[in-house]
Amino acid sequence: MLFRPMFALGALVLGALTLTGASAQGKWPTRPVKLIVHAPAGGAADIYARLVADGLQAKWSQPVVVENRSGANGLVATQALMHAAPDGHTLMQTATGPVAMNPLMHGKAYDPATAYAAIGPVSSSGMIVVAGANEPYTDLRGMAAYAKANPGKMSYATAGAGAVPHIGMEYVNVSLGADLLHVPFRGEAQFIPELLAGRVSVAMMVAGSALPHVQSGKLKAIAVTSAERNPALPGVKTLQEDGIKVALPLWFGLVAPAGTPAEILKTINTDLAAVTASAPVQKRFAELSVTVPPPISPEGYRQYLIDESKKWATMVKETNISLKAE
Length: 326
Description:
The chain is α/β, with parallel strands linked by helices. The chain has helices at 22-25, 44-60, 75-82, 96-106, 140-149, 164-176, 188-197, 207-215, 262-277, 279-287, 298-319, and strands at 33-37, 64-68, 90-95, 116-125, 127-132, 155-158, 181-184, 202-206, 219-224, 250-257. It folds into 2 domains: 14-125 and 250-319, D-Maltodextrin-Binding Protein, domain 2 (3-Layer(aba) Sandwich); 130-242, Periplasmic binding protein-like II (D-Maltodextrin-Binding Protein, domain 2, 3-Layer(aba) Sandwich). The protein has a 5-stranded mixed beta sheet, with helices on both faces. It has a 5-stranded mixed beta sheet with strand order 7-6-8-5-9, with helices on both faces. It is globular, with a radius of gyration of 19 Å. The two termini are 30 Å apart.
């Protein structure tokens, strides 16, 4: 489960965030900070990272530069982070997929317990299963029935093998017997035009990326992966309502190279929590159907990453889903 909302942060204004955290350190950061993002520019992960970067830059009086390193379900970004100096000047925004799937796909070198140092959460949200506007079904049951009546004709897009939407859609496939063809891309920004053109049938997308296209009528939502219905889409059923047994939230958080000093991790953790609690970020996240988990220490967040990795490993094993690139 995601963090329980027991200690909700109060809203803070970004302009007032310069008196705590890193400013007390004095010696850090001493130069621009690089924030690696495991997805291409323009997608939801990139949007969240740039909001965080802007807020941290205002606090630290140093540029926080977003560097997009997409590919291999976050492996490219993770390798770049692991080769960076552990001095707090290189960070990475990671997500459910890279943390949960990389240990299964690439071995213990990417175990979240040792591959990097945990900092804290950025956001969490449900995903939305979307279909082309002209697809002749309105929910997952209808999609499965249409797929069975038209074998070999339906496909789903993802940001790559092993990504959470891949595992989620394969779980839907297994549960409903839909037998959709998986078509992997490098990111959401790459497959959205294919969805709009009808060259792929469906996709499981981050809510913030999917909603503008759904609200404009260019795509239609056929399910949400959260435990409850999305307030922005009250008429769209959850996975459970269509017979799928799980809820699949998607989260993002910050990590640093292994060996980064604990005091720097604590400073970034505190400043990150303040930035994500600020009124401007809260407003933008609400527009994107994203919530901010309550604050948690770096050590607590490390344990959360370990628990998430174990949870998804169990799900992959139980459903016999292949994580091999296609």
